[in-house]
Amino acid sequence: MNDLDAEDRRRFEQLVLPHVDAAFNLARWLLRRREDAEEVAQEALLRACRFFRGFHGGDARAWLLQIVRNTCYSWLEKNRPRELMVEFDEELHPRPVATPESIAIADEDRERLSRALESLPPRFRKVVLLRELEGCSYKEIAAITSIPVGTVISSLSRAHRQLYSALANSLLIGAVRDG
Length: 179
What we know:
Blueprint: H1 6-15, H2 20-31, H3 34-50, H4 60-79, H5 100-104, H6 109-119, H7 122-133, H8 138-145, H9 149-178
């Protein structure tokens, strides 16, 4: 924060630093490894600090999360380019037989949900994370991800279907294994 004068430093601390946890959460879900997420979130915060003079108001959270997303994708391109290309194959995964409500009350919810989220392609994982875990609006997600609001809504819908399918498959596999 050496590049900032006292007033900009105060504004940065007030507007951006409250969103550090959200920045780490987004990096964690996009990169999947805590160590990588810590490194990339720190780099994103340094970038945010470096470019803070260019921030002229608006939603600081969306601004920071967009920097985190871009930093994650740059890191992935350099370190794991194949992950950016992985897509969900609907032909290989049957439609869910369990309802979201029955899945939600299953014993191993948290672990199943984590595995299901990790199975989503990065572009779907990020919209689910931003909407469901970070509580961002469609408009905020569009700003963070640089995609139109309509695409955010359709991506979220597809992501939910894939998530439900993965959760239902997990329940079926668990039932077969236990039964």
